[in-house]
Specification:
Helix content is about 75%, strand content about 0%. It has one domain. It has two helices and no strands. The protein is mainly α.
């Protein structure tokens, strides 16, 4: 898969992947900010940690996929 189109611009599929990775990075930052809040209940902390686990998994998948495209 090529990351550039005929005009030497990043192709649409790669741009979508970059946008998804960026969005997930923002989600991760938001969750890590939430985990630092004082007064979280055990349930709130558990929910945030669950979402954080999912976010880290998504980051790993997105970054690996993007890495494969870039290395081709």
């Amino acid at each position: 898969m090529e990351i550039f189109d005929n005009n030497n611009a990043i192709d649409d599929a790669t741009q979508v992947m970059l946008t998804e990775l960026k969005d997930e990075c923002f989600r991760y930052i938001k969750l890590t900010d939430q985990i630092e809040l004082d007064g979280l209940t055990e349930n709130q902390l558990s929910n945030i940690l669950g979402e954080l686990t999912a976010s880290v998994t998504h980051l790993n998948i997105h970054s690996e996929s993007l890495k494969e495209i870039i290395e081709i």
